[in-house]
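Students often ask why we bother encoding 3D structure as a string. The short answer is that it lets us treat folding as translation between two languages. Here is a chain of 560 residues written in the first language.
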Amino acid sequence: MSNEIITHKFRELLLPSLLIAMALNIASVVDASFVSTFIGHDAQAALQVLEPLVLLITIFEWLFGLGGQILALNRKAEFDEDGSNHYFTTAMLATIVLSVLMILVCFLFKDGVINLLHPTAGALPYVHAYSTYLFMCFPIATILGVLCQFIRVDGQPNFASGVIIVANIINIVLDYLFLCVLHMGIEGASLAMLIGYAVGFLCTLKYHFDAKRTFRFVLSKLKFGHFISSTIEIIKIGLPGASMGFFNVLLIYIMNLIVGGVLGELGLDIFNVCMVALLIISILIMGFAETLSSIVPIYYSQNDFYNLHHIVRNSIIITMACSVIFTAFLLVYPDGLLMFFKLHNMPNDGLVENAIRLYSLAFIPMAFSTMLLFYYEGIERTVESGIITIISEFLGPLIFTYLLYPYIGITSVWISFLLGFILSIVVVAIYVRIIERNDSEYYGLFFIRKGLIDKTRNYTLESKNDGAKSEMFNHLESLNVDGSSIETLGNILDTVFDSNDGNVHVEILLIDYGDKIIINMKDEGKREVMKDIEKSFSEDNIKVSEVLGFNNIEYVINRS
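And here it is in the second language, the structure alphabet:
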């Protein structure tokens, strides 16, 4: 047995996910660095004041991008192309509607929105100046982010990452031009962002005219009532990830009030650098997490726990290891980050360094809790993912800040994030343990189905004469499967290998459900082979589809 296909697919999706996260996060880091360098720390404080509004884009991206993507991929895994297209159409239409409403609210009630953020006196004029183009960018960036989530899992991950990277490269280049050369002030930074994302949005037109895409708009079949119910379903699935952004908005808003009230613009500057550190490590963590959320629905719905265990374990190990390294760097040399914001030589730089060191300790438990969160979202366990979100992104830090502030003052803010992530892991582990005691079907943090482990076999065939093929046939004979069914399976495999000239690996999942045996075959060979399978094997118990860019064949052997 091997995990070649899932490993290759994970790597294929991971790189674009990392590049997208890198483009988004590095652009924010560069924006903050440019603004603090060419305008000043009051302007940098303004960016931190506006951060809750900027995070609204991420909320919609997770709500409709990940939520719609998971449901659409599940339908693909179940060979329901119409259902898959329906969720794609619903997700995009809901995104457009809510994005338009968001920009209307921001412009019609601009002063109220800004006053709600409670900017400090020094940051207020910069907040007003930056917000105009920022509000205009909201619908463009939101629709672009959701659409790229679907493009990424539709066999075009490199194109999806390319679009976001182009948008952010333009943003960074124009930041330098507008701020350093043309001296346009903070308005130039927000205008650069608007132009960059507008260009990225225009680039996505290529996807709409691509004949190879599998997600298609079906507006003619979309009924209002069905649209509403499907939107609610998408929100339900995407809510844990989106609520992470929503609660993060609330948390940052409240923490802005605390640090701004206690330390003024300096407190907002420190918190902004902490957010920058979070953005840097999030490149890796969110890249792995979003890749998991794309793959987990397919393999979990097919009960392929062997491949799931492999990819989830490796993801957690890698993200935890990188988090340890980054945390160690900030503990030893926080000035390595502070120097980009001219905070390393301030009179009270000890306060700044202490904040960075304490805040960085949260990155290690954050890596594990984020992997769990997106895994639970992928298997549609909304309660468990909700527990992690509410505690780690909102209640945990607030509770510990409130409890510790009388004893350690503003230091309680920086240490509360670490304690919040740890508390979320402990609480969800206790909750899962309670479920495990009351429901004998599942066990462990990852909800493995007990009864199927012993009834499951995984095989990897590298050729039509691979020894694993004989091993699989012997297992089927031990299950009293008739010879004609085994012969049909052999013919399907021969067709796959012959059509690909033997240059293909086939991963096979075989599960004995008692009344039937389901054999699922995946390969990354030629797409036209699926049409050959459909023509050559007209039996009702054979289904084919394309999922995440690989061929998916399901052969059902009924025993009744």
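Translate back mentally: The longest strand covers residues 550-558. Keep this in mind for the problem set.
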